């Protein structure tokens, strides 16, 4: 039985080139299905990696109650003072609390790809700002001088927008700025931002002494409860305390879901379309070999080997289709830089990431299509009557 | 028995195959329709923009405010008909997740600047006169089940009143619709005065100013003059046409349009290959029959047409069902998404383009098999026996 099955299967696979038109169409249509699915998944996982990478568990972010996003938040100088003495906050070697008051305004950058203006976040932050981003690293140049119109830019910014290279002078709003450094935060959302001194932003954009958010490094991830209790019991504070990870998870959910909810239904709809293709190709394949299969039956081969052979053919074709689609997506899309409007009304730059898990999922989808598409034609192959040898 | 019967019989001779092909074509057009509807929703603002309307925002960015005094100064520019300032309110209803697109406006100038908004006369007067009145768009009113006469607290996630509260009590005095269905009605307007006087910070400023001009031909001159008026001031302005402003905003979401086109393209390429190869196969199977038809006196062009019609018929059956399903699905999605996206539906342009695609699909997939069929030689085909 096993011998028979192997023999018929090999015979079947070797004869694929004789039916190349139909087989190629099946392979390509399955490849397109997998390509579309993986494209969407690459977009979603790239976006998620960027936003998730930004949040750490031992950094607390405080916003005005009900603000939902940094942009809408507003915290006064008095409130910041109360937070500086809050419990649960780690201290610097010099003994000051590791706190960063931050304020960002939206500035226009010109996007390279489309030459259209897009919103960039110009964030003013204090001395301890970089301490809140564990992976912060100055890649080129130096840090800005407090009080001067100097900028450091995240490494995604020069990639996606024009005029932000080290040493460039750039006009944002009514002011001229010099770019003195490029930093990396390990591919997180902060890499799409421009940083400068908090006081400079407050002055040039007439924000007085108010800030939007206060970030604090916690002594441990659990210390957030202590901090939260302090804030709730202090009547002069109307603030929401979140871990940074929770904050980013909340703001990323919508976009990632949108991408995923669009990607999977599309891939499934297209897979049903491709199923019809696979089905037809397999029917054609069985039809083309009716006499051959009947002859095999006549000389003593069973129906089961014919069934297995047809199934293997369908799955092999689908597997190749899936592989072609996955490799093509990987070559075309992996690492492609894109940007979209994030929750803070500013651009988030992210790179498409074709992950190994996504590739596996794509190939599995392809093989499911192959299996379903091959099943009924394979049943038919197994049931070809002996007399079919006389057909035609 | 005429040609039409023959075409129909040929198409459905293998019922399963015909059904499968119909399904794959159906799916291609379903995807086309759904994505088209989505693209419409994203480009709605651009299409609804009026020719004679300009938008002035802060040059830094539209999120930065402009001083109150600009209202009067822009009014002085020659050729300006109406000036309607507005502030972004950032509203939500009950829960922060229940986003309500809302802005504070000066009712009289706003209604004048947006003549496409349709009010009942008494409701319009009520909205203009009542200080705590709000006018709600039809789509938004449907979403939250609001009706005229109701009193709602609208929370703001940006603004605070002097007493620290973030809720504004509003009376719904009017529900407006739009005249021709091209302008979204998923937003709410409240009185600028009522909003402004209770603010804890950021008073006496606007986020954008909509300007209507007497003559669209003068738009360029007028925008230049407005921007020159405020050059070198702390709040410089940028004035563009409403269409350009909306397009630039949508552009920020990234290449949604491009991605959608890619997906539609991939779906069509897949279907084209499947239908094409199957048609070739189906016609090859019939070589002998075609030879018989020829023997009976069917001319080669007639056979060519018959095979081509077969492909077109298949394309239309699948395509029209798919488009119909997409229209139904879009209607369903539209009801669910009313607050976020303005009307989500298929336009006539979409439908006509889809029909053009059906013709193209039928022609492309039918041409090769039809050509093969036309060239079948009686002697060869029948000699195969």
TrEMBL record, chain A:
Listed InterPro entries: ABC3_permease_C, MacB_PCD, Macrolide_Exporter_MacB
Pfam families (alphabetical): FtsX, MacB_PCD
Protein's UniProt keywords contain Transmembrane helix: yes
All residue ranges annotated as the MacB-like periplasmic core domain in the record: 23-232
Coiled-coil regions, chain positions: none
Spans through the membrane: 20-40, 258-279, 299-324, 331-353, 359-379
Boundaries of every ABC3 transporter permease C-terminal domain copy: 267-385
Subcellular localization: Cell membrane
Protein's membrane topology: Multi-pass membrane protein
Name used for this protein in its record: ABC transporter permease
Keywords noted in UniProt: Cell membrane, Membrane, Transmembrane, Transmembrane helix
Taxonomy, superkingdom: Bacteria
From TrEMBL, chain B:
UniProt domain ABC3 transporter permease C-terminal: residue ranges: 266-375
Membrane topology: Multi-pass membrane protein
Domain MacB-like periplasmic core: 21-228
A Pfam family matched in the record: MacB_PCD
Keywords, ordered alphabetically: Cell membrane, Membrane, Transmembrane, Transmembrane helix
Keyword match Membrane: yes
Cellular location(s): Cell membrane
Record-linked InterPro entries: ABC-4/HrtB_transporter (IPR051125), ABC3_permease_C (IPR003838), MacB_PCD (IPR025857)
Sequence intervals crossing the membrane: 16-35, 259-283, 303-328, 348-371
Domain of life: Bacteria
Chief localization: membrane
PANTHER family linked: ABC TRANSPORTER PERMEASE, ABC TRANSPORTER, MEMBRANE PROTEIN
Protein name: ABC transporter permease
